[in-house]
Amino acid sequence: MPELTDADRIARAEAWIAQDPDPETREELAAIVARVREGDAAASADLADRFDARLAFGTAGLRGEIAAGPNRMNRVLVSQGAAGLAAHLIERATDAAAPSVVVGYDGRRNSEAFARDVAEVMAGAGVRAILLPRLMPTPVLAFAVRHLDTSAGVMITASHNPPNDNGMKVYLGGADQGSQIVAPADAEIAAQIDRIAASTTVPELPRGAFETADESVVDAYVAATAAVASAPAAQPRVVYTAMHGVGWETMRRVIEAAGFDAPSLVAEQIEPDGRFPTVSFPNPEEPGAMDLSFAAARAARADLVIANDPDADRLAVAIPDASDPEGYRRLTGNEVGLLLGWQVAEQVAAAGGEAGATDAASARGTLACSIVSSPGLEAVARAHGLDFRATLTGFKWISRAPELRFGFEEALGYLVNPETVRDKDGISAAIAFLSLAARLAAEGRTIADHLDDFAMRFGCFDSTQVSIRVTDLSRIAEVMARLRAEPPVEVGGIRVERIDDLAAGVDGYPPSDVLRLVLEGDARVMVRPSGTEPKLKVYIDAAASEGTLAERRAAASDAVGRLEAGMRALVA
Description:
By secondary structure, this protein is of the alpha/beta class. The protein folds into 4 domains: about 1-50, no CATH class; about 60-215, Alpha-D-Glucose-1,6-Bisphosphate, subunit A, domain 3 (Alpha-D-Glucose-1,6-Bisphosphate, Chain A, domain 3, 3-Layer(aba) Sandwich); about 215-460, Alpha-D-Glucose-1,6-Bisphosphate, Chain A, domain 3; about 460-570, Alpha-D-phosphohexomutase, C-terminal domain (TATA-Binding Protein), CATH 3.30.310. The protein contains 18 helices and 22 strands. The chain has helices spanning about 5-20, 25-35, 40-50, 75-90, 110-125, 140-145, 185-200, 215-225, 245-260, 290-300, 335-350, 360-365, 375-385, 395-400, 425-440, 445-460, 475-485, 550-570, and strands spanning about 60-65, 100-105, 130, 150-155, 165-170, 180, 210, 240, 265, 305-310, 315-320, 330, 365-370, 385-390, 405-410, 415, 460-470, 490, 495-500, 515-520, 525-530, 535-545. Strands 1, 2, 3, 4, 5, 6 and 7 form a 7-stranded mixed β-sheet that branches. A hairpin with a 3-residue loop joins strand 15 (about 405-410) and strand 16 (about 415). The relative contact order is 0.08.
């Protein structure tokens, strides 16, 4: 394909402006075109970045920076995406009834406008479209797909991405049970989007009237989520932050319905604000993101800090820690996932599992986590006679584990109520964790005590992550290619026993750009590009199951430290 010239790009930009319904992005692009005509080299590079590629639709849907052009998030791209999804649903419909979609949106910039575009375009294409009544957490949308028995769901969100990002996340109903899309549906939808973008302008897409869901959908989610909790045996002192997102309104109702006292709030972050003014990056995992939460916790002498990310599908937890300068330590996603998984396993054991199946473990259910999450969950499952599945990263895979009882991934995602929500849910996970903290408090014990108990019963599983953010995505491909061409024989002085390249479809997984290094002494390193951010991610795990608690912790920590230093040198 011949390389585009400035003249080619200007022609494409003018055609884009002619179909763009958003005056802000029209003016933005017109100004760039004017500067290109004046010979501005920076404007030429900007126009090339916007028009030499198209924001790809994949298993995460669409996600990117809000701006004009096909390689950005905007109303043109969203309208084309909606029309492509509608065409896919209509083509695959198996009965006379029109396919249906429920659409939700969070508090980010342009979320409501994008959601209305999706609903109107899909309704115009012949799909029954239902818009949630106001901005909502992503888990409410995931719940609504199953509750309303729709063919699909669309959530307008970019989760914890930078403030100027937004996205379009797609779920499928029916046989997919409200899970996120996976192959081949992603490629089929992408093909429909490309066809429509090449043949039809946005003004030519018919628009229709959509329905607005009533409050009964939200009421049903609140009731189902509150049922995750048992009656509080005690009332821990809790601080909560919504991280400028949409979690608090729904979380407040669930906390109240579950019988917990209202938490102290991080007032500066409790209302939705798409500018995210008090954090440099609205992700509880990022350094500094929970500083205000820790200050509020010190003032309240809190036993627990609970944070949702902006669309409330993730949960962060922090506990008192006198050794930390802040006085509190954020638990890793693996620590929270292992404790929640242990709680679910105990609940299944107490209930006696399900009778009548030939395989006892399958009958009682499955614990699942992503391949980059802690191996400790398998130890929990094995100890309780449950099945275990490790899946590719993302809840689109975790949610599809058979007979799922609980699933998690280390990136603060937890699925504790698979009968109602087939996606990570930071609200239901928070209620489940509050129940655990309340039970322990009634026994005079803490979450820290429980983590010690876990290490002694199942082994000490330590982990860390090396995350390298890049501005040039080719750097990630270069590192992955180098590791494949020159595989290490040791990392940090620990011998590599084998390397599994998941690009070849190892262990029945679909081909994926992931390298798994299995090292001596129950250690493991996973390397992969991020699916949602410009990052290379390295996941490091080590375990120790011999000796005292202190000896186990020291052995696992030492191995993780050596592996981290070794991997930083390898991927530099």
